[in-house]
Write a structure and sequence with these properties.
The structure holds three protein chains of three kinds. Chain A is an all-alpha fold. Chain A is built from four helices and no strands. By secondary structure, chain B is α/β, with parallel strands linked by helices. In chain B, a hairpin with a 3-residue loop joins strand 23 and strand 24. Classes of the chains: A mainly alpha, B alpha/beta, C alpha/beta.
Chain lengths: ~100, ~675, ~375
């Protein structure tokens, strides 16, 4: 499918200098296609994850987000200390604090 | 502050309420625990028979669960150990004040013309907890004033405080989610879907639980004011569930019936039949005078004359008289008529069931369960034949609650899907007439059978459930009138053999039918469920032989073997399955005698009609399907010369020259 | 979801695998049809390529992804409301419950937002240590912010958390490049309409939740709205409050009645029909929705200290208290503007620039992605 057949991007994103974690593909005009995704490392993470055990995968994510939880726990949308538990619940707390974005 | 003494051997949860050390039950909600200890927390949306939703925020109280005091809705909060609750703190008072002010800003000030005025929780709470004056100067919300959402219920959305009680009831209790919230924010309203009225069998309950005057019942609208009421607690007699009610009257007319929260029976719910049938008592068409046929017309007569005529019709010999009906009467009336007919006149051709019931042997001889026993957690309930929603709506609500909450395992052994099918653990939908075979197969060892048209997988489920232990209750009723009652009786016997401890709940149509059977208004039995001839009755006489049932009576009458037909509150022309047979019987007999509250199609063909007092006009007692005997209370006087049924029996006995031995 | 839906889908699948889940629901709000279209299309492609569905990438892992399009409501961002909506009920939040035990269809459920999940593939590829190199120690990684309003270059930016400040964001060349027409900054909303406003004094607060909280606000959704000094504070507050009044689900009393009342009072003040005690009335309604001192930034000129986040609430969810944020912030800082609009109280006219704009000077409210 030719690129010019796509409807234009929703406006908003401004490309700027700085680290890109979520927006690494945003500068491409066809950033939303599977081809572009795979050409730029898409689904490599999934492949890597499937090679590990589920617990290892969870461990990696936990390692990065623990302090995020602490930082965000004071927000009103987080439903309180019940979420601040070990294990998968950590996922919950980042979720509860940011669900407005969904 | 914490008690250091060793904890007592109790399951109670210690907590502090306004400085008092108290104990709550395990899992008890704070609002209930406080109420039990004499502290009323104001509420609108909370209803103890429905899931709490915490919507109105009126029950906010300051709670310290260990992490500092915060405002919590007490209707959503189970008491936890060492919780400190303050229902009188400044924060609590301010929050309740605020919620009330917010509830009132859009609530119209039409209390003087509102049916709820005088018994309105919003009014009461506003007096008790409210700020007194509104700071709201804007235009209030406006909607079209009351719109009918069903034939019986009107909805005034301006008055609505959106507490979710009616919508929760419709969805959660009745299973008829025909009213719901629409719109959002301040424009949220309760309404029905266009062209789908709130036609629930239970619609009247939402009027009772509405905490404001948003839902009003058309029979009651503008009829009376709450402060004018006289009221008494009684029992609904339209079906055999025996729901507890409050009868309210104004100026000696019944104006409203409310459900009473009786733990054992109806949990405050009523079917619309039970709730609104009081209107019959106020009807202009009541029979208020004794009537005697005179050249084709029924003419008013004096009681003594009419009783003599009635006695004359009875005096043609015991074998020449057939009696139909008796289920409308209170127990006292049933006993009096039983003693008059069986113990004085020796008549045994008496049947209170008009071909639509169960054999008296089955009902009177089987061990009886209770509603709460049948619906207790861990029970297995076999529904045999009947559709509860159609037959006993109040019992249907209890069964629905128990099944949806996983308290009971419901096995359906019915000819077709019933209103409880969605909640049944096993659905044995048999071909008509094969219930007995299916029941017999269930007793066998084979777990996987296709018998009587039942799906083998459902059969296997039922087979396993019946061997799972736990008490078993069989709810026995007729699925249709084409199928013989013997099919149900056979299936019941098979199931009783399979589950030896199984008790039954008979699903019989008609109000006090269980009382009628108990009082011997059925062939072959004397009061107390004693078989004829089994022991001396102590009555002046006793029927010589076992008499005919309703079908037998009508056939005998049609064949010219009977000369008198007595209608004890029965209307067989409208109510007996074989109308043709009834017409032939009516044409063949010499005399028809009736005791009735209305001139029905049948009683208007009688030669003597004696006017009877009805529901709400006479004291007495009732026997429900469990065998429970709740009282019936008179709240208004019977119209004209109508009398209680037992008095009519005494009058007729007097005319026969007998004395039933009753004192007034 | 519009720009890189595969990143989200990949993140979902990895998360499900890590937590041993086999069903993933993507709830896309009705307001963003393009996102819905692209996620749906991408999910189909993934199904064909076996990135989702049965036996993913030839393994015995099977994870279903179900796409659900909401009908359009702000409050479905609240997780219990989202679950109600997903179950086909009204979008009303229920009482907080532990979703990991009883969530969707009363099954254990984990609710996550798009941004979190979109981080996961990168994290898998590069590891947690690499991730932690970005951002501050307390808040590693980056986050998306949407800067809107009176700036020269509004838009969505990915920024390092905790490292840069609001001044960098609003004035930095790499970001918004300053206020339009080089006007002065009046106020800015640091994290979505529900965040109390920040002012010049808070420009040097780092972009980090733990830093914004004590200052009296939050980062919330990352939607930063900037108002320059031509903005009418009353009109801005009204615009934000109106949003919450319209988006209130109507379930609990304080939010349903309170937000609508606030909107009416503000509208009245703006129309010149204010009453002398309307300012106190507004604050009092706010107290009924969110009791106790409401979080607000400091106002050094008047010697007023900040009230730290979060607010208390009499409501079920934080939507109602959100409507109080613009009111308390605006009244504390710009009380004179309110008073100037109230006829009886306007005995000493002030010379604030307002009322001469024929357009809605306040930025649009809403989260950008």
């Amino acid at each position: 499918m030719p690129t010019n057949a796509y409807i234009s991007h929703a406006p908003g994103y401004v490309d700027n200098e700085g680290p890109k974690i979520v927006t690494s593909r945003f500068p491409f005009e066809d950033s939303f296609t599977l081809d572009r995704s795979q050409a730029t490392g898409g689904y490599e993470g999934l492949k890597a994850a499937l090679a590990k055990s589920p617990a290892d995968v969870a461990g990696i994510v936990k390692a990065r987000s623990f302090s995020v939880v602490v930082a965000l726990a004071s927000r009103p949308e987080s439903s309180g200390a019940s979420c601040l538990r070990s294990g998968p619940a950590i996922w919950l707390s980042t979720a509860t604090s940011r669900t407005r974005d969904v | 502050m914490t008690a250091t003494e060793p904890t007592k051997a109790t399951t109670g949860v210690p907590f502090t309420l306004n400085g008092r050390e108290l104990e709550a039950e395990q899992g008890e909600l704070l609002i209930d625990a406080a109420e039990r200890n004499g502290v009323h927390i104001p509420r609108f949306c909370y209803h103890s028979r429905m899931t709490p939703v915490g919507m109105c925020r009126m029950c906010l109280v300051e709670v310290d669960g260990g992490r500092g005091p915060s405002l919590q809705p007490s209707c959503m909060l189970p008491v936890t150990p060492d919780m400190k609750v303050n229902t009188e703190s400044d924060a609590t008072v301010k929050a309740q004040d605020g919620v009330l002010e917010l509830l009132l800003i859009n609530h119209p000030l039409d209390c003087p013309v509102c049916d709820k005025g005088g018994e309105c929780p919003l009014q009461d709470n506003a007096y008790a907890y409210g700020p007194g004056e509104s700071r709201f100067v804007e235009e209030k919300r406006h909607y079209e004033k009351p719109i009918p959402i069903s034939d019986l219920v009107h909805l005034d959305r301006e008055r609505c405080i959106l507490c979710d009680r009616c919508t929760r009831f419709a969805d959660e209790v009745a299973g008829d989610p025909l009213i719901h919230f629409m719109g959002r924010g301040a424009d949220t309203q309760v309404n029905t879907f266009p062209d789908h009225p709130f036609s629930s069998y239970f619609s009247g309950n939402v009027v009772q639980i509405c905490p404001v005057g948003a839902l009003t019942a058309s029979p009651y609208r503008f009829k009376a004011r709450p402060w004018d009421f006289a009221e008494t607690e009684s029992t609904a007699t339209t079906d055999s569930s025996g729901a507890r009610v409050v009868l309210q009257s104004s100026r000696d007319r019944l104006v409203r019936t409310l459900g009473v929260d009786s733990d054992a029976v109806n949990w405050s719910w009523l079917s619309d039949k039970e709730r609104f049938s009081y209107e019959a008592a106020n009807s202009d068409n009541r029979v208020t005078q004794p009537l005697i046929a005179d050249e084709g017309d029924l003419r008013q007569a004096r009681w003594a004359t009419a009783a003599r005529a009635f006695a004359h019709g009875l005096g043609v010999g015991a074998s020449k008289v057939g009696v139909l009906g008796g289920a409308r009467l209170p127990l006292e009336g049933q006993y009096a008529w039983s003693k008059l007919l069986k113990g004085t006149a020796g008549i045994d051709n008496i049947d209170a069931q008009l071909g639509d019931g169960l054999s008296p042997e089955l009902v009177l001889a089987s061990p009886r369960s209770t509603i709460s026993g049948a619906m207790a957690a861990g029970s297995t309930v076999i529904l045999l034949g009947a559709d509860l929603k159609e037959e006993l709506p109040t019992l249907f609500l209890r069964a629905r609650h128990a099944a949806t909450n996983g308290h009971i395992k419901l096995i359906e052994l019915t000819a077709r899907a019933t209103s409880l099918s969605p909640f049944a653990a096993a659905r044995l939908h048999t071909q008509p007439g094969t219930a007995g075979q299916v029941a017999a197969a269930l007793a066998g060892d084979e777990t996987d059978r296709a018998v009587g048209g039942v799906q083998s997988s459902e059969f296997a489920k039922a087979h396993a459930l019946l061997r799972g232990g736990g008490p078993v209750t069989i709810i026995v009723g007729r699925s249709n009138l084409a199928e013989s009652a013997a099919v149900v009786a056979d299936a019941t016997a098979q199931l009783q053999a399979l589950c030896p401890g199984a008790a039954i709940l008979p699903i019989l149509r008609r109000g006090n039918i269980n009382g009628a059977l108990e009082m011997g208004l059925t062939p072959g039995f004397l009061p107390g469920g004693r078989k004829l001839g089994s022991s001396p009755s102590g009555w002046p006489t006793e029927p010589a032989d076992v008499g005919l049932d309703a079908e037998g009576i009508l056939r005998a009458a049609a064949d010219g073997e009977l000369s008198t037909l007595v209608l004890l509150g029965a209307d067989p022309l409208a109510d007996y399955p074989d109308r043709d047979l009834v017409i032939r019987a009516f044409d063949a007999v010499d005399t028809i005698l009736a005791v009735d509250t209305f001139l029905t199609e049948s009683s208007s063909r009688a030669s003597v009609v004696l006017p009877a007092a009805m529901f709400g006009e006479t004291d007495g007692s009732f026997m429900n399907l469990e065998g429970r005997v709740p009282p019936l209370r008179a709240q208004v006087t019977a119209p004209g010369q109508a009398r209680a049924d037992w008095m009519i029996a005494v009058e007729v006995a007097d005319a026969l020259g007998a004395d039933l031995g009753f004192d007034t | 979801m519009e720009r890189d839906p595969h990143q989200l889908i990949e993140g979902c699948v990895i998360t499900c695998y890590a937590l041993g889940l086999n069903q993933c629901f993507l709830y896309v709000r009705g307001e963003i049809p393009l996102a819905h279209e692209r996620v749906a299309f991408s999910a189909q492609r993934c199904l064909c390529r076996r990135f989702v569905g049965k036996n993913i990438m030839g393994t015995d892992v099977s994870i279903d992804v179900v796409l659900h399009w909401g009908a359009g409501a702000h409050i479905v961002g609240e997780e219990t409301a989202l679950i109600e909506s997903l179950e086909g009920k009204r979008h009303a939040p229920s009482q907080p419950r532990f979703l990991a035990a009883k969530g969707l269809y009363m099954k254990p459920t984990i609710v996550n937002n798009v941004e979190t999940l979109a981080n996961v593939p990168w994290l898998m590829n590069n590891g947690a240590a690499a991730y932690k190199q970005f951002g501050s120690e307390k808040s590693p990684g980056t986050r998306m912010v949407a800067i809107s309003g009176h700036v020269k270059r509004p838009g969505v930016y990915e920024v390092e958390q905790g490292v840069i400040t609001f001044r960098d964001l609003l004035y930095g060349d790499n970001y918004a490049q300053g206020i339009r027409d080089d006007n002065g900054l009046k106020a800015f909303v640091p994290g979505g309409g529900s965040a109390p406003w920040f002012f010049e004094e808070q420009l040097d607060v780092p972009l980090e939740g733990s830093a914004a909280g004590p200052e009296g606000s939050m980062l919330g959704s990352g939607a930063i709205m900037v108002m320059d000094d031509t903005t009418d504070a009353v009109r801005a507050a009204l615009r934000l409050v109106r949003f919450y009044a319209r988006e209130s689900c109507g379930k609990c009393t304080p939010c349903r009645e309170g937000t609508a009342w606030e909107e009416k009072v503000l509208q009245r003040i703006l129309d010149g029909h204010g009453r002398p005690n309307d300012i106190d009335l507004l604050l009092s309604i706010g107290e009924n929705i969110s009791p106790g001192p409401y979080p607000v930034a400091s106002f050094p000129t008047n010697g007023l200290a900040a009230v730290p986040f979060p607010p208390k609430q009499t409501t079920i969810c934080p939507l109602g208290p959100s409507s109080v944020a613009p009111i308390t912030s605006a009244i504390r800082r710009f009380r004179d503007e309110f008073e100037a609009k109230i006829p009886a109280a306007a005995s000493t006219p002030t010379d604030h620039a307002h009322g001469d704009q024929d357009h809605d000077a306040t930025p649009a409210v809403g989260d950008h992605h």
